[in-house]
Amino acid sequence: MNPRTPLVGTATEMVGWCIELEAGMTRRLNQYTCDRRCGLSLLSEDVDEGVTPFQLPCVCGGNLVSHFYHVQPEVVDKPADIEWYKPTSKQLKRMSNELLLHVTQGGLALRIVSDSAAHLWRLA
Q: How confident is the prediction along the chain (124 residues), in pLDDT tens digits per residue?
């Protein structure tokens, strides 16, 4: 399967890459779950085209590991905890060299959009 080819289904099915909503709108959702016992799971949404990482650091010291766009059916109607987006040229000027390299090679930047995710990262 080509990873850029969206898999489309209804919002109540477990699907990959895109979730079909009414009138042809889609959400590109992914889940990240901790590989340790803390149980943290975050829902992410790609708001732009680009590359996202396989894992992120977890607040417990473990890693939040990607589900590769296979999300659990019970989360598809929930708002995302984090968003992946293409930064503006103004935002690029304030980025670290590491993140700037990632973005210039097609990667997306992370934005925290839920209060619960923001709280967790403040604790880390």
A: 333 333 333 333 333 444 444 455 578 999 999 999 898 999 999 999 999 999 999 989 999 999 999 998 888 889 999 999 999 999 999 999 999 999 999 999 999 999 888 877 665 5
Q: What's the domain range around 81?
A: 19-123
| 9 in a structural domain | no
Q: For residue 17, what are its two tokens? A: 């890459």
Tell me the three state secondary structure of residue 7.
Answer: strand
What total number of domains does the chain contain? 1
